[in-house]
Amino acid sequence: MAEPRSITGTVVAICSVVVAVCAVLVTVKLLGADFTAAQQPRVFDQTALEQQVANRLQGVGDDSPGRVGCPAAVPVRADTEFKCHVWRHLHSDDVQVTVVNDLGEISVKHS
C-alpha cells in the first residue's frame, strides 16, 4: 500500500496544476475580451434635450415655444434623427431634430 504522504503530495501537486491552468485560461479570456461592447451608449438627458430644442425654437414663428416633449434615451450619435412635439399657445406640432455630431449639438427643423 502507498504511503499517505506520497498520496497527499500527489493530490496537492495535481490540484496546483489544475489551479495554475485555470488561472492561465481566465487570464487569456480576459485579455481577449472586448470590453467596448459592455459600455452603455451615451444618451441625451431628456430634460436638457427638451430645453435645448425649446432654445433653438425661441424667436422662430409667431408664438414662443411652450412645452417641448422629446423621446427618452436618444443616443448622442451623429446623424440620429427623431421628432419632438412642441405645444404652443394655440396649437401643437412636431419638429424634426437631427444630432449634428457626437458632442450633442442638434439642428431643429419644422416637420
Automatic annotation (TrEMBL):
Which InterPro entries does UniProt cross-reference here? DUF4333
Superkingdom field? Bacteria
Q: Where is the DUF4333 domain?
A: 37-102
Q: What is this protein called?
A: Uncharacterized protein DUF4333
Q: Does the keyword Membrane apply?
A: yes
Q: Which UniProt keywords apply?
A: Membrane, Transmembrane, Transmembrane helix
Q: Where are the transmembrane segments?
A: 6-32
